[in-house]
Design a protein that fits this description.
6 helices
Length: 290
């Protein structure tokens, strides 16, 4: 990596919908928001070297939604790599055929990595089917350790939809990587040169110091969580942002780019209601899989 700053863009929670299907759980015009953001990305000086999108690429995970996402990205003509990972709203059976042209192994996690300008970007799929919170499936940690060993001299940028758990509170596992898998991730990353972890899922901009590693979460492009309401539950308001990352010899800088919004209330969940929502979602998904 040279001493010149390298810039990139972090998108998350795009929640693109199928324009041919009405979706009562899509709270904003995410396609228009994404088009506007990509137009802004094209004006950046210096131009970013890559884009990472940290999951919930679509709202329902159907092929029509991925086709819409693919068309929007193609229209933007970014001419830089766009790297994806998956979130709990995504479905591998929709993502793989449309976005990658893949027809086999559709149940496998989408773990992959790429080196760009001396940055080792590692994208880990935490979107275990039928779960809202994040989990690793068998073999994923082993894959991660092997990948970390491939370029031990390069700084690592980790991308995954669910951020590591910040507290040992099982009742909050729906909003993060599970506690057990957070511990496994910490062990795998110990002693490595990690620039940061980029995530989404909780729909508000947040930066944490997780055992010396910056963990960056973005609002995304669907709706924003009102952080002043978190003592009572989840209040979703209109809002979106993306982030610009700059890599310097001193480390990672993140600058958030909020989109114009009147912060109109969209949906409110109490914590009791949220717990029931999680149970209902997982139960319905399990029945559908039978």
């Amino acid at each position: 990596m040279s001493d010149a700053p390298l810039t990139f863009v972090h998108l998350t929670d795009l929640h693109i919908g199928n324009p041919l299907v009405e979706d009562d759980h899509l709270y904003s015009d995410t396609a228009t928001t994404l088009r506007r953001i990509l137009a802004e990305v094209k004006t950046m000086v210096p131009a970013p070297r890559f884009v990472v999108a940290s999951g919930d690429l679509t709202n329902q995970g159907d092929t029509g939604s991925y086709e819409e996402l693919k068309a929007i990205i193609a229209e933007a003509e970014l001419d830089i790599p766009v790297l994806y990972t998956l979130g709990n709203h995504d479905k591998r059976t929709g993502f793989y055929p449309v976005m990658l042209g893949r027809t086999e192994g559709l149940d496998k996690p989408y773990d992959h990595a790429q080196v760009i300008d001396g940055i080792h970007i590692i994208l880990i799929d935490t979107s275990t089917p039928f779960k809202i919170g994040g989990h690793f499936e068998p073999g994923q940690i082993e894959w991660l350790v092997d990948e970390l060993d491939r370029h031990p001299e390069l700084p690592k940028l980790i991308v995954m939809h669910h951020a590591p758990a910040l507290d040992q509170r099982p009742e909050l596992e729906w909003e993060s990587l599970s506690i057990a898998d957070t511990d496994r991730l910490r062990a795998a990353l110990e002693g490595r040169s990690v620039l940061g972890i980029l995530s989404g899922h909780i729909h508000f901009d947040r930066v944490s110091n997780w055992y010396g590693i910056p963990v960056v979460v973005g609002i995304g492009q669907h709706a924003a969580t009102d952080v002043l309401y978190l003592h009572e539950g989840l209040r979703m308001v209109s809002g979106a942002s993306f982030a610009v990352g700059t890599v310097r010899p001193s480390g990672l800088t993140i600058s958030f780019v909020p989109q114009p919004s009147e912060r109109r209330e969209l949906k409110v969940y109490t914590f009791a209601g949220m717990a029931e929502l999680v149970k209902g979602h997982e139960a319905a998904a399990a029945v559908a899989a039978e």
